[in-house]
Design a protein that fits this description.
2 domains, 4 helices, 5-stranded mixed beta sheet, elongated, two-stranded antiparallel ribbon
Length: 179
């Protein structure tokens, strides 16, 4: 009986090991295809699954990144997934950079971790954005401009796209609405 069991146990262990390798390879391939870095997903709002949002009382800022990944060094990496293509210039849209910069500030203030970089995953490409002092200052400057607009109760429309006006939450009160 022991002589028969041993070859079956060896075969079973081999099959389980092979299955584990196949699953590991498949998950690595899927992760590369999604543009997510290696690490553990600690926040997921890409499918609306997140429990709450990040909120900083220090900066009066809140947000819901699509993903937060904790890498093997313990760094927290924000990932923002976009439905459009990366511009032909190869540079991200300014609003996407500022959004990622806001997530850098939130992560640092709320989680006490300074992200070294973040990722913007476009439909056709994935780009890595460094967390720089300049980007942080750009975000803080824009936030100050926004606060001044709120205090003055006036803001200029920032685009020339009718479609954006159609879906705008302020369309009912806007005297600059297109279409």
């Amino acid at each position: 009986m022991i002589q028969i069991l041993t070859p079956l146990a060896i075969l079973g262990a081999f099959v389980l090991g092979l299955l584990a390798l196949i699953l590991l390879a498949t998950s690595s391939k899927y992760r590369r295809a999604t543009g997510l870095p290696s690490g553990r997903i600690i926040y997921n709002d890409a499918a609306g699954l997140a429990q709450g949002e990040l909120f900083s009382t220090t900066f009066g800022l809140k947000g819901k990144p699509d993903y937060l990944i904790k890498d093997y060094l313990g760094a927290v990496i924000p990932v923002e997934v976009k439905s459009r293509n990366l511009p032909a210039s190869g540079q991200p849209y300014e609003s996407h950079l500022l959004q990622l910069g806001a997530y850098f500030i939130l992560i640092e203030d709320v989680m006490k971790k300074i992200p070294p970089y973040g990722i913007i995953r476009y439909k056709n490409d994935t780009i890595e954005i460094r967390n720089t002092i300049e980007l942080r200052q750009d975000v803080l400057d824009i936030m100050e401009e926004m606060r001044l607009c709120l205090e003055e109760d006036y803001a200029e429309r920032s685009h020339k796209q009718k479609a954006r006006c159609v879906n705008c939450s302020m369309a009912h009160a806007c005297d600059q609405r297109l279409g």
